[in-house]
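Summary of Year 1 activities. Much of the first year was spent building the evaluation harness for sequence design. The harness presents a backbone, in tokenized form, and records the residue chosen at every position. We chose the following record to illustrate the format because it has been used consistently in internal testing since the harness was completed.
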């Protein structure tokens, strides 16, 4: 296990979050090789000193740490299978994709078969904190590998919350799904509040003034409302399509463990309608448009 602070990190997935985390790792002085299925999306990282490569296997070759930040659990496992020939025995695998609980168990099994040290490590935050290296890392995994993995967490995040010593148990992912259920509910509610204000001819600023400073006020509501009111839905902090995926993971996790999550299910449908209207790549608060029959309401 590498004990130095400067590591070689292979990043698989350079979307909104993966690209930002890759830049943070490079700023911290780590050697970073990055791969993305659509290479053109990764190419701008070369200007930051990142080695952009053409295959997952190239990205993980001789890496001390492999970081996965992809769309979902199935994509992670598919990509890791492609990387398998170059995975180094004893390397650390930091799995930061928001995935289903069952997928985490499958990933941990893959790690065991390839002698990887597995960390279940989703992050809390969107594009802006990711670009600033100020995410919150939720982490579970063995104590004896933490000296290697902590420089990675310190590079991408401002806080690491350890949820357990066994990454395979998925305790970090479970907490992430609970946190995301709140984030997505507030986001969907923000869109509905603005939609109702529009059709009732109520100035949204009157509503925001009404709750100003009280227990119903919150910074997140104001930030998301401003994106709609100011027409700043791109670049997305967190895209509609990804929000729908996470909402369905949350609904499934609840159903599998005996809880019916009606709000999350409704949010998933709102995100799906917004995506069908052409807003899938916009910020998730573009679910606002799902309240109207016409996408440009």
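For this record, the design step produced the sequence shown next.
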């Amino acid at each position: 296990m590498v004990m130095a602070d400067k590591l070689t990190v292979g990043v698989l997935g350079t979307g909104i979050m993966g690209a930002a985390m890759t830049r943070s790792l490079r700023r911290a002085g780590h050697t970073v090789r990055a791969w993305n299925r659509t290479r053109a999306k990764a190419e701008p990282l070369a200007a930051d000193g990142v080695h952009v490569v053409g295959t997952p296997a190239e990205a993980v070759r001789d890496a001390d740490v492999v970081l996965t930040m992809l769309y979902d659990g199935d994509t992670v496992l598919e990509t890791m299978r492609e990387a398998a020939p170059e995975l180094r025995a004893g390397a650390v695998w930091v799995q930061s994709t928001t995935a289903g609980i069952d997928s985490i168990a499958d990933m941990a099994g893959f790690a065991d078969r390839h002698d990887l040290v597995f960390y279940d490590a989703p992050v809390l935050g969107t594009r802006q904190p990711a670009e600033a290296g100020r995410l919150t890392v939720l982490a579970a995994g063995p104590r004896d590998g933490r000296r290697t993995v902590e420089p990675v967490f310190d590079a991408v995040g401002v806080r690491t919350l350890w949820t357990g010593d066994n990454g395979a148990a998925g305790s970090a992912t479970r907490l992430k799904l609970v946190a995301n259920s709140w984030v997505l509910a507030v986001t969907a509610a923000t869109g509905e509040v603005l939609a109702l204000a529009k059709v009732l001819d109520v100035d949204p600023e009157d509503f925001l003034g009404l709750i100003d400073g009280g227990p119903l006020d919150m910074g997140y509501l104001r930030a998301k409302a401003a994106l709609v009111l100011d027409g700043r839905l791109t670049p997305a902090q967190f895209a509609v399509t990804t929000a729908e995926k996470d909402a369905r993971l949350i609904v499934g996790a609840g159903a599998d463990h005996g809880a019916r999550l009606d709000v999350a299910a409704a949010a998933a449908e709102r995100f799906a309608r917004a995506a069908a209207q052409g807003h899938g790549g916009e910020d998730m608060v573009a679910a606002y448009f799902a309240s109207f029959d016409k996408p440009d309401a």
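The radius of gyration is 20 Å. Quantitative recovery figures across the full test set are reported in Table 2.
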